[in-house]
Amino acid sequence: MSRPLGLLASACLLATLATSLPAQVAVASPDGRSRVTLEVRDGRLTWRLDRDSRHLVLPSRLGFRFKDELPLDSGLVIIDSARTTQDTRWVQPWGEVATVRENYNELAIVAEEDTGVVVRDRNGTPLQRRIIVRVRAFNDGIGFRYEFPSQPALREFTIMEELTEFHFADNPAAWWIPSDRPRMDRSEMLYSSSPLSLLRNVQTPLTLESRDRRSYLVIHEADLQDYARMNLKGPACIECRSLAADLAPMADGSKVRGTTPFRTPWRTLQIADRLVDLSPSLLGLKLNPPSQLGPSDWIKPMKYVGIWWGMHINTMTWSSGPRHGATTENTKRYIDFAAANGFGGVLVEGWNTGWDGDWIKNRWAFSFTQSYPDYDLPGLAAYAQSKGVSLIVHNETSGGIVNYEKQMDSAFALYQSLGLHAIKTGYVTDTVDGGHDHWSQYAVRHHRRVIEAAARHHIMVDAHEPLHDTGERRTWPNMMSREGSRGQEYNAWSGDGGNPPEHETILFFTRLLAGPMDFTPGIFDLLIESGPGGRRSPEDARVRTTLAKQLALYVVLYSPLQMAADLPENYEKQPAAFQFIRDVAVDWDTTRVLDARIGDYVAVARRARGGRQWFLGAVTDEDARTLDLPLDFLEPGRQYAAEIYADGPGAHWLDNPLPVAITRRTVSSATRLRVVLAPGGGQAIRLRPLN
Ligand code: NOJ
Ligand code: CA
Questions:
Q1: CA of 339 to the centre of ligand 1 (A)
Q2: Which of 10, 192, 308, 631 falls 20 to 30 Å from 404 in CA-CA distance?
Q3: Which residues in 508-550 belong to E strands, given as ranges?
Q4: Does 464 contact ligand 1 (Cβ within 6 A)?
């Protein structure tokens, strides 16, 4: 059956269809390999997924529980369905790839509560509520969303629970972080791996690897605009293999308030036969609306430095006083350094009043326009501009959404008037104003307002402690990057000593599948000798990588705003290695994952946007390894100069992290490169065409 959706049809037509439509309908991906079936069984709506005629997801529940209304999950019949297909391409203004192909088959069904079964509300009024489930099947995954059309039986509603389930046929290994830790670490945790059947409360993207490593699935969501973030809760029993949606709550425990017509974000399942095909992950972008912004010359991927690491290693402070980092003089030094090395931005934290005292508790105290007296914002903005550099204005909110929103428009107008086009926001707290969860609908709405207000004032956004990325950058290309995972900062102060060497090899296949991450690579003073008291003892926090691995992270961990996170003086001491950070691109035409195993190693090649230069980054966990990488992605018939930044002799993350061996050789698409990685090491390569 293929025609316009029955919502537009008359009640009488719907009544006729109710008896004639089958209880199950399916849609296949364009390559025919994945097939989603929507089915009503005993009045309950389910979905399932088969691939190459194998069951991947068994019939899994769909539906909702509401406040003061009966659940919408039983007594249903499919009364209508419609199909469409799409095959278009568009160019991303920036990204891991330039061109995205959006090719899907869509099926939408209308399900209605069946009056034959007589579902009544508490007052005895028969309910015939209607719900649409829309499925899009792509070659690289599927998405489905619910829509509540306008209807007398459902106007205003409060969702208490979304009943969506993912009931897996297999018991794959899951790479996960918890969603229920009652501490201020939000998504900033180390990943664990365990069989899906052992999961309890976890965040998405959730990456699943089959036991034979021959199929990969990633559960996530797309187009989260006016809803609660979806976490997942694990199976009720050890033998079970199903996960269920677990929406982040508002302070009163409710999840989502809405009025019909209404639609939820897409629930997405990325599918790949090989691990290397999971990245770059474009499914989420394809399920977001097209860009709202025309050509915008103020949106520019860039590398930046900042008055930042000094606070984390405790040589500077955000607050006022003798070690205040954000002084006019210090900022000028950073601007000069940025200009001399071709960086586009200088981030300055602690420039605005509100940091004195307990800034995490005093969320009302932050001003977003008032500088500390030793920081000349207009003067520095002009100085930066005269050097071709832009200040990145830091807005830590401590979760004080009301305080931020009160000031947001005037603050953004001020920044715009000073010619500043980028902010870094921060939400260091578990709950936001009013005790709402960090990821509740209340917070989701706020984050969208920030993106839109920033766009009005020509401002790019880099969010820390953010909402997780659900592909907003397609619609709002000023939403550049975000944190939302354990970044470099943990290497400065974490009680557990810092990120273990395997960390980034997992991030690549989990957090980074959602979108760009502001990890802030590039620490050269790995033992933090520039911190107070000099070199740290082995148990203290420090960077647990080699120096070459810090360079490789610029290619591996994608971000359109990429920080050179260390102090300028630490780069000045090592100009040869620093050259790679000066050279590396931040915007890409294409991306190829060459070889990888989650938690062990990953090697990625990317071609710089609009050019013929390639960059290659490879990183390993605590084990040394040698990769044999064919360079067949290079243009055939062309010679390339490979500038190789490898782990030097005897390099080891633990006791000898600094040696870097910089060599040059000529390569072509026929070359196989032997990439030798030290324990905790990496390799970064620039490939410049010679002819
Ligand atoms: C945590 C952020 O991740 C970090 O980058 C920032 O410096 C501090 N909060 C202060 O806002
Ligand atoms: Ca953080």
A1: 24
A2: 308
A3: none
A4: yes
Distance in Å, CA 392 to ligand 1 centroid: 14
Residue spans of the domains in the chain: they are 11-286, 290-484
416-473: pLDDT as tens digits:
999 999 999 999 987 888 899 999 999 999 999 999 999 999 999 999 999 999 999 9
Query: Residue 215: what pLDDT?
Result: 94
Atom of ligand 1 nearest to the CA of 424: 5
Q: Is the minimum distance from the CB of 184 to ligand 1 under 6 angstroms?
A: no
Distance CA 92, CA 589 (A): 9
Q: Is residue 489 annotated as part of the catalytic site, yes or no?
A: yes
The fold of 11-286 is Beta-galactosidase; Chain A, domain 5 (2.70.98)
* Percent of the chain predicted with pLDDT > 90: 89
CA nearest to 646, candidates 576, 598, 563, 564: 576
Cα distances from 621 to residues 514, 519, 551, 689, in angstroms, run 22, 17, 15, 31
Distance 466 CA to ligand 2 centre (A): 9
Is the model's pLDDT at 583 over the cut of 50?
yes
Name the maximum alpha-carbon separation found in the chain.
Answer: 81
Model confidence, pTM: 0.95
Per-residue model confidence (pLDDT) at position 675: 98
> Would you give the distance in Å from CA 178 to the centre of its chain?
16
Atom 3 of ligand 1: nearest residue by CA position: 464
Does residue 248 carry a pLDDT above 50? yes
Please identify which of the residues 396, 465, 489, 502 carries the catalytic annotation. Answer: 489
Pick the CATH number of 290-484 from 3.90.1150.10, 3.40.50.720, 3.40.50.300, 3.20.20.70: 3.20.20.70
CA atoms of 653 and 679, how far apart (whole Å)? 6
Q: What is the pLDDT of residue 410?
A: 98
Could you tell me if the CB of 486 is within 6 A of ligand 1?
A: no
| C-beta of 426 in contact with ligand 1 (< 6 A) | yes
